[in-house]
Design brief:
The complex is a heterodimer. In chain A, α3 packs across α4. Chain A is an alpha+beta fold. Chain A is 26% helix and 24% strand. Chain A has a nine-stranded antiparallel β-sheet with strand order 6-7-8-9-13-14-12-11-10, with helices on one face. Chain A is elongated. Chain A contains 15 helices and 33 strands. In chain A, β10 and β11 form a beta hairpin. Chain B is mainly beta. Chain B is built from six helices and 34 strands. The chains are: A alpha+beta, B mainly beta. The interface between A and B is medium-sized, with 23 and 32 residues. Chain B: Required for maturation of ribosomal RNAs and formation of the large ribosomal subunit. Chain B: It comes from Chloropicon primus. Chain B: This is Ribosome biogenesis protein WDR12 homolog. Chain B: Keywords: Nucleus, Repeat, Ribosome biogenesis, rRNA processing, WD repeat.
Chain lengths: 780, 489
């Protein structure tokens, strides 16, 4: 680089001058190199020198030795040295020089140097002004890349600008080395002669004063030019002090604000490795190592498994049961047992065992055991033929298990403990006519008469004890409407009044069971008819007087008829026997009507429709509460306070039938989803127990009046009897136990089976009615 | 359990039969597996030496071993009762009940709700409210009185009540005593009415021994030439529910009834009442010409006392001793009442509703009182209430009732009657139409006869050894059943 700048000759400032100076030095590489070589006394250089130009070199080396005076070391064996190399060596020299400073001998010299430097500073202006370079222009044009060695055997040493060979100087032109040396010694040249032979250009060059100075400085290991400051003051630019302005006035790059993707990838990699256990924290590694060490050093019982019960399980789930062990032989098994173990041979020959009953004074005399093979064989048979069972310890003995099972069973009492309940068929009440479907049965409160409602529009009354049909009421059909009698109900207060529902009409019949005209039912009916004569009736429920024919005894009797205008489905009495409620499923707010027989009045308890389709309604047995069952809910309304008391939600299917427990706090419903649901009003609005027992719609459910019994009749033809105990204390939940299934109680005819069931008011008997036209009585 | 035929049992036969049927009282070794038939053959063989010219063929005997009739093998019978086969066994023998002959049948217009035999007279009440009268001594059921409408509803019970001790005794007690005025027929109906009737000879006056006159009955009678006529003389007013059962006392002049009003009502008729009734009947006779309804004129009688205790319908009453009335009810109890004190003295609780009750006849003099009752679950049971009486006397409270159960009926037991001639035999009928004859000493029925195609509803014995039963098939079946008590003959 230095040479390039030099070649351009553009620079005119001081630096340029420096370079020029340096070049001057450079141009005499052979001098310095020869000096070095001599000093090192390396064989190579000697040979080189010898080959090169023996005498010249020697002269120069002598010259340099004189001038430099100090051991200059240089690794460079190249003939030409670059400026940088010179600089390096200078700095080294400087270092070594400083070392020498401590020796003290050259302090003065150093000081004089300083003085000289000061002197020379004045002259620098001159140096800068006249350039010696211009004076001594290179004649040779081969350039510096061509070593002069190549021209050793030539007569020329390169070419000048015009391309002419530059002849090596010989003879007079070139002063011989010896002459040169002699001149020096003679002083013709002067000790301070500044002539130097330029091999390259083949001419003698006279060094200027400045050049000499530079050479001297170089020899001292200093920078050739005065203006060079090798140790400028350090300006610290990265300090702890915060700069007021940024060092670089660029906006912050975006990457500084973004999380590094590379880091993220690296983290993921590490995390994965840690998860997979490829890399572990050193603490863990340490732990593992310790564990391994411990394991390898662990001491264990070699035979410890022998007494331990194996608790493993085989692949097939069977646990290994070790074979029973032989009893260890005791004294009796000894070959020479104590005398007390030797029984008298006379005593029992049969039970004698050789092993225990014989004695030998030494082991040598013991004969071979003749049963050995047999016993081992038996043992093997035992081991693999006899099933083994682990004997359980603690409370798992067979006795305890049995006891526990018995306890569990005892939680649900056996049906035989819950007697009485209906068990066997006692009587059948025959309906004349061709399989007329019986829709409803009802027993009068005394338990003597049974009324049935059939599809042929006849209400029959039977004597319970003898199955004799004693009355047949043919309900008058108005204008060919529904023939079926769907529901009947006896007046619960002992008066012989029966309410029957047929299509749109509801009849209150004087049943005349007492056998006289002045039966209580007839009196009641007559009273209300008398009242009816002078009274306007509710247009929605028309009360009227009707003659109803009775077929068996003959005659027609006055009875009350209420026309509701809509099809009614069910009726039920209030327990006092004056009010009864009827249900019209499609009646909206008129769905539930409450009629008062003594006053011939009809009330509509609800302004709005309650539920989508009212199915059934029942009075609470003691409180003024009306239970209304719609398809999905059972609602309990307080009739005096006019409010909703409870709302019960059916779990599944739509409700078909409902029955209220005689104490009033429990309700059962039968649903189309083959279920019977027991609701406890004290517990919650959801079913306390759901019994899925039937395989078809549960058509009717019934409670017994005072026995803890309830029953369900279903379209699958079965009637199920349950024990349903309700306790008076508030802690015990009702106990429900199925006790009897009356299978095939009724034939299924046209998808209809058992239609209705009803308990006898006093006896644990149940009446069931079916679509097959039969009414059956089951007794206990 | 097979018994070893080689094993022998020592037996000694005793009997209460007449001397010509007695076998020597020596111990006889019999095979232990011998049955009733074998023993019977043995007896016949033993007797044949004495009775060679017996043309009737082998007689059939029944054997009583340790108080029970022998059924099955002898050894098993003994083992069951824990008796030793090594001791000598005393076997009592008597004639077995003869197999039933085909029954005679009487047709009635409706279901037969009640039958009652008196001598050779048979009264039957039917569900149409009619009462009819037959004489059966002639072999065929001779109709004395066709169905006479006595009640508006079905007749549920009949009883013959003796009014005076006097009266014809002996052979022709049947007819003459009835129309003699010493006895009246009481009919009870499910419409809660009860009526008393004279049995008059139709077409002539019956001369009563006690100066009573027999009145000729009016136009209503449908009696034949030998017919008798029923004349209503009493109306017993008191029951508020249907009457289910009527029983007369062993003495005279009293009877009791029970029904749906849950009270046992006791009625009494003395001779004055009879006289009044006869006077009344005479009046009625006059009035009959004036075309007054017959039934309206009768002497109204009110019950002397009533006995409370039952909670449900009283299905059956009986009056075994002068001071003791027993009743069975649907409330599953049998109660015994002291009539004079009007108090309940004994109570037996069963587990099913009771439908019928009867007591053994000769309770008064034989010292045994047995009550038999049948229930809705088909169980027949026999109970001696006097155990509990004794316990009460001792002050030990109620003794555990020893009730012997007889399980054979499969349907509701409708009626039960003790044989008048034997303290051991009784008959029961059920709703399957079966009539079963029982010996108290055997847990199996002696005979089971299907007399009715429908429910059998009522049952009674005749003194002549005939069993009459009425059923829902509108028939009265007459079944010869000559029951003899073991010790009698």
């Amino acid at each position: 680089m230095v040479r390039r700048t030099g070649k351009r000759k553009e620079a005119s400032d001081a630096v340029e001058q420096e370079e020029v100076n340096v070049r001057a030095v450079e141009r005499s590489p052979s001098i310095s190199s020869s000096v070095e070589e001599e000093e090192e006394s390396s064989e190579e250089s000697e040979i080189e020198v010898g080959i090169d130009s023996g005498s010249d070199e020697e002269d120069r080396s002598e010259d340099t030795r004189q001038e430099v005076g100090s051991g200059e070391e240089d690794e460079e064996d190249k003939p030409r040295r670059s400026w940088a190399a010179v600089m390096d060596s200078d700095s080294e020299e400087e270092g070594s020089g400083s070392e020498e400073d401590t020796s003290g001998g050259e302090e003065e010299e150093f000081g004089t140097d300083e003085d000289e430097n000061e002197d020379e500073e004045d002259e620098e202006e001159d140096l800068a002004s006249d350039s010696s370079e211009e004076e001594r222009e290179n004649v040779n044009t081969i350039g510096e890349n061509i070593p002069l060695k190549w021209y050793e055997h030539e007569r020329h040493i390169g070419y000048d600008v015009e391309g002419k060979r530059l002849q090596k100087q010989t003879g007079e032109n070139k002063a011989s080395t010896m002459d040169f040396f002699l001149d020096k010694q003679d002083g013709t040249l002067g000790s301070k002669s500044n002539k130097v032979w330029d091999e390259y250009n083949q001419r003698m060059v006279e060094l200027t004063k400045e050049e000499m100075k530079a050479i001297r400085r170089i020899r001292k290991g200093m920078f050739p030019h005065l203006s060079v400051d090798p140790f400028p003051d350090l300006v610290p630019w990265a300090t702890k002090d915060k700069l007021h302005e940024p060092m670089v006035d660029l906006p912050e790059p975006k990457s500084r604000f973004l999380p590094s993707k590379w880091e993220a990838a690296k983290v993921v990699k590490l995390v994965r490795a840690m998860r997979k256990g490829w890399i572990k924290p050193p603490s863990e590694l340490e732990k593992e190592r310790k564990e391994k060490e411990e394991e390898s050093n662990k001491v264990y019982m070699l035979w410890s498994d022998d007494n331990k019960e194996a608790s493993w399980k085989a692949a097939n789930g069977l646990s290994y049961v070790p074979a029973t062990k032989f009893k260890l032989p005791g004294h009796a098994g000894s070959y020479n047992p104590p005398k007390e173990y030797l029984e008298d041979e006379n005593e029992d020959d049969k039970d004698m065992q050789i092993s225990s009953k014989q004695s030998f004074d030494c082991l040598r005399k013991v004969p071979a055991y003749d049963k050995f093979v047999n016993e081992q064989f038996e043992r093997c048979l035992d081991l693999y033929l006899c099933p083994r069972m682990r004997s359980r310890k603690g409370n798992r003995t067979a006795e305890n298990l049995q006891r526990r099972m018995a306890e569990q069973k005892a939680k649900l009492p056996k049906p035989s403990e819950l007697k009485p309940y209906p068990r066997k068929l006692a009587m059948e009440y025959e309906h004349d006519g061709d399989q007329v479907c019986v829709n409803s049965v009802c027993v009068d409160p005394s338990g003597r008469w049974l009324a049935t409602a059939a599809d042929d529009g006849v209400v029959r009354v039977f004597e319970v004890a003898t199955t004799r049909c004693v009355r047949k009421w043919v309900l008058p059909a108005s204008e060919k409407r529904e023939r079926k009698v769907t529901s009947i109900s006896w007046c619960p207060n002992g008066k012989d009044v029966l309410v029957a529902v047929r299509g749109h009409q509801i009849f209150a019949l004087p049943i005349l069971m007492a056998g006289s005209q002045s039966s209580s039912g007839q009196v009641l009916i007559n009273q209300s008819l008398a009242l009816l004569a002078g009274k306007e009736t509710n247009p929605k429920a028309k009360w009227s007087k009707t003659q109803v024919k009775e077929n068996l005894k003959g005659g027609a009797h006055d009875s009350v008829c209420i026309d509701l205008g809509k099809k009614a489905s069910q009726c039920s009495w209030h327990h006092k026997g004056d009010y009864f409620a009827t249900v019209c499923p499609s009646g909206n707010n008129m769905a539930v009507l409450v009629h008062q027989l003594s006053k011939c009045a009809t009330q509509t308890p609800f302004n709005k429709s309650k539920g989508n389709k009212i199915v059934s309604c029942e009075f609470h047995p003691s409180k003024p509460v009306l239970f209304v069952a719609s398809e999905n809910h059972v609602r309990a309304f307080h009739l005096v306070k006019q409010e909703l008391v409870a709302k019960l939600v059916s779990g599944s299917g739509s409700i078909i039938s409902m029955a209220v427990h005689p104490l009033g706090d429990n309700i059962i419903v039968g649903t189309t989803a083959e279920r019977v649901e027991w609701f406890d009003l004290d517990l919650s609005g959801k079913a306390y127990k759901v019994i899925r027992n039937h395989s078809n719609t549960v058509q009717d459910v019934a409670f017994h009046g005072h026995y803890p019994l309830f029953a369900s009749a279903s379209d699958d033809g079965q009637v199920h009897i349950f024990h349903g105990m309700v306790y008076n204390d508030f802690e015990t939940n009702p106990l429900i136990v199925p006790v009897k299934i009356l299978k095939n109680a009724h034939h299924v005819t046209g998808h209809l089976g058992a239609q209705s069931c009803c308990f006898h008011p006093q006896q644990p008997w149940i009446f069931t009615a079916g679509a097959d036209g039969k009414v059956k009585l089951y007794v206990n | 359990m097979e018994t070893d035929a080689s094993q022998k049992v020592l037996c000694r036969f005793v009997t209460k039969l007449p001397d010509e049927l007695k076998v020597p009282s020596t111990d006889i070794a019999l095979p232990s597996n011998s049955t009733r038939y074998g023993l019977s053959q043995t007896i016949n063989a033993l007797l044949s030496t004495a009775d060679e010219d017996d043309e009737e063929g082998p007689k059939v005997f029944d054997f009583l071993v340790s108080g029970e009739l022998l059924r099955g093998e002898l050894a098993r019978h003994l083992a069951k009762r824990g008796l030793s086969v090594e001791k000598t066994i005393v076997i009592e023998y008597f004639f077995a009940l003869e197999p039933p002959q085909p029954p005679k049948e009487l047709d009635l217009p409706d279901w037969v709700g009640a039958v009652r035999g008196h001598g050779d007279l048979l009264f039957s009440g039917s569900y149409d409210g009619g009462v009819s009268m037959h004489r059966t001594s002639s072999g065929e059921g001779e109709v004395l009185q066709g169905s006479k409408v006595a009640h508006s509803d079905s007749v549920s019970a009949l009883a013959v009540v003796k009014v005076s001790e006097e009266g014809p005794q002996g052979d022709d007690s049947s007819v003459s005593s009835m129309h003699g005025g010493g006895q009246i027929l009481v009919t009870a109906s499910k419409d809660s009415s009860m009526r008393g009737w004279f049995v008059n000879k139709a077409g002539g006056e019956a001369g009563g021994d006690g100066g009573k006159r027999r009145r000729k009955k009016g136009a209503g009678g449908k009696a034949g030439a030998t017919g008798l006529d029923l004349v209503q003389v009493f109306e017993f007013v008191g029951h508020t529910g249907g009457v289910e059962s009527v029983a007369s006392s062993p003495g005279c002049g009293r009877f009791c009834s029970g029904g749906w009003d849950q009270k046992v009502r006791v009625w009494s008729i003395d001779e004055e009442d009879i006289a009044g009734a006869q006077l009344n009947a005479a009046k009625k006779q006059k009035k009959a010409t004036e075309e007054l309804p017959e039934n309206t004129v009768s002497l109204e009688q009110v019950e002397t006392t009533f006995l409370e205790g039952h909670k449900q319908c009283i299905s059956s009453v009986c009056w075994p001793e002068e001071n003791l009335i027993c009743s069975a009810s649907w409330d599953c109890t049998v109660k015994c009442f002291d009539v004079s004190k009007g108090k309940m003295v004994s109570n037996l609780i069963r587990d099913s509703a009771l439908f019928c009750l009867d007591s053994s006849r000769d309770a008064g003099h034989s010292g045994s009182l047995s009550l038999a009752f049948g229930s809705a679950d088909g169980l027949v049971a026999v109970w001696d209430p006097r155990e509990s009486f004794r316990a009460k006397e001792k002050g030990t409270g109620m003794a555990l009732a020893t009730v012997k159960s007889f399980k054979s009926h499969k349907a509701v037991v409708a009626d039960i009657r003790w044989s008048p001639s034997s303290p051991f035999h009784f008959a029961s009928c059920d709703y399957d139409g079966l009539v079963k004859v029982w010996d108290m000493r055997s847990s199996m029925p002696l005979h089971s006869i299907e007399l009715h195609g429908d429910k059998a509803l009522c049952l009674d014995w005749f003194s002549a050894g005939t069993l009459a039963s009425g059923g829902a098939d509108r028939k009265v079946a007459l079944q010869g059943m000559a029951v003899m008590a073991g010790e009698k003959q």
